[in-house]
Amino acid sequence: MGRVALVTGGVRGIGAAIAKALTAEGYTVAATYAGNDAAAKEFREETGIAVYKWNVRDYEDSKTGIEQVESELGPIDVVVANAGITKDAPFHKMTPEQWNQVVDTNLTGVFNTIHPCWPGMRERGFGRVIVISSINGQKGQFGQVNYAATKAGDLGIIRSLAQEGAAKGITANAICPGYIGTDMVMAIDEKIREKIVAGIPAGRLGTPEEIARCVCFLASDESGFINGSTISANGAQFFS
Ligand code: NDP
């Protein structure tokens, strides 16, 4: 097939499952990470997938990293903006630092990831932009004013990009996962996690592979008329 895919935050959790699933479908994949060298090394050795390190919060770092990926693997056809963080606190205790870190990573980081890929996609007349948003961007969440704002903002990004890219063969879509059993969710206090699972009609957390399947669907050449959409994958917890 020969298509190249970039997955930010692609060495752990949902991103790692996405990188592996795209590789299995025949894409040449670049998986990025921020600082967890041990996880990146293990992922690289286990999968053979190319790994790159840069901070999505920094535009110049992202641009330089993307140029390196394109010179080594070829032009990026599919960009999956997956890297994200939480810094939870009830609003009255939320610090400007917690707000800024989450906005810089989950919202500005998405701009920094897509923007350098965009001109090449326009020139070549093909592109797939996929952003990993969240159920909590759709419905809001106690303790996540920062996170929910960024994930809702990500939906605004793809809906606008869809309109700008449609005539150039580019689609932009989002996936809103519910609760998935990754480090991010396993870091939640066990008692709170049990309550969360009790509120999911499916009666369980989702798996990273179930989100990766949505990405493969949206990335395919045959999904060209799906543009500006959101796939909710949340075990029937919430319908948008
Ligand atoms: P993890 O915490 O397991 O992994 C996050 C990945 O993002 C890591 O590879 C991490 O790099 C990378 N990352 C974090 N900050 C940066 C940064 N500044 N620059 C570059 N890379 C960075 O997260 P999940 O797999 O759980 O989540 C992936 C995405 O899915 C996130 O956007 C999250 O908000 C979203 N999501 C997750 C849900 C869940 O239940 N898990 C539910 C809904 C949405 P490193 O390995 O170096 O730390």
Automatic annotation (TrEMBL):
Entry EC number(s): 1.1.1.36
Keywords: Oxidoreductase
Gene Ontology terms describing biological process: monocarboxylic acid metabolic process; poly-hydroxybutyrate biosynthetic process
Residues in Ketoreductase domain copies: 3-178
InterPro entries: Acetoacetyl-CoA_reductase, KR_dom, NAD(P)-bd_dom_sf, Sc_DH/Rdtase_CS, SDR, SDR_fam
Coiled-coil portions: none
Keyword match Oxidoreductase: yes
GO MF annotation: an example: acetoacetyl-CoA reductase activity
Annotated Gene3D superfamilies: NAD(P)-binding Rossmann-like Domain
Similarity comment: Belongs to the short-chain dehydrogenases/reductases (SDR) family.
Designated name of the protein: Acetoacetyl-CoA reductase
